[in-house]
Amino acid sequence: MGSLAVFPSSAEAEGLSRLGVVCSQEPRRSEHQQCPRSALQVLGMTGVLSGYVCVVTGASRGIGKGIALQLSEAGATVYITGRNKETLQQAAHEVESRGGKCISVVCDSSEDDDIKALFEKVRREQKGRLDILVNNAYSGVETIVSTYTKPFWECPVSMWDNLNNAGLRGHYQCSVYAARMMVEARRGLIVVISSIGGLRYLFNVPYGIGKAACDRMAADCAVELKKHNVKYISLWPGAVLTETIKEKMASGDTSSSEAEMLTSIIKFGESPELSGKCIVSLATDPNLMNYSGKVLMNFDLARRYGIQDVNGRPITNYTSLRFVLSTVPSLAWLARFIPGFICIPKWVLTLSASKF
């Protein structure tokens, strides 16, 4: 059905500029370049996550950094990981400026020893406390771009590892170490950043398998963690306006189709911090266990918790019938006649991906 919305994760969103993924919505107000300091920070008050210890993997840029910024603004101590020491330290400085404490740890999420050392460090420095883990690291963008039009049998088998080593196996390993600490404390939240690629074909075969596995990992881990009061969810962001998208647009080095897509994301895309706002709200929800094991979408959480993006713009509802019609050229004219509150039920999305 045309170019129905995709939900890329942090590093994946940064590859959109070369993938031709289109996002559309009604016009919004112009975006602010900087998010203002939190009112709590200005008033010298503690945040809702004061005392919390968090780990966000793949947080040098994009959604990962946006999540870390919001966790810090809520008062948490945040460990961020990445492979590049310089960009990681720059991100840590920005995160800490929001009011919390940030510790940068060079960690390759495809390396077992790096992951083990990360959680040993957290356990040692925080006396065994870990409240939130966000599995966000991803290293497959270049592979997605270079193989975008090729069927799986024409691609090297190594593509599987390029996409799913850090972005699936690494997530599982991080979850194991985090769960050990959380189960001991009988509290905690684990989030894996996934996408609609786990529901329908997107980009390539290993990508979809990896995202479907992330969603299933959240569901199955939640079953075993429930009796220990530890929650696990899969979070689907929408199209995200990352640093790479901005840089690509500013460079002027784009094809006409790329420019059209970039313009749509710049006008309508989520900020990288929206996912962080959603996670802060989830972490402070006394009924969070009701959602453990489920796939949650940013636009649903924004409506549930009354969240607005950092620039004050409304968030695209990708299940809105108006939005879906707007992505189908032959039906786009109908979109303006459909009220925005009419949405495609979740069971329809599930049925569309049924394997039976």
Automatic annotation (TrEMBL):
Gene3D superfamilies: NAD(P)-binding Rossmann-like Domain (3.40.50.720)
Origin: domain of life: Eukaryota
Coiled-coil regions, chain positions: none
InterPro entries xrefs: NAD(P)-bd_dom_sf, SDR_fam
A Pfam family this chain is assigned to: adh_short
Protein name: Dehydrogenase/reductase SDR family member 1
Organism: Pleurodeles waltl
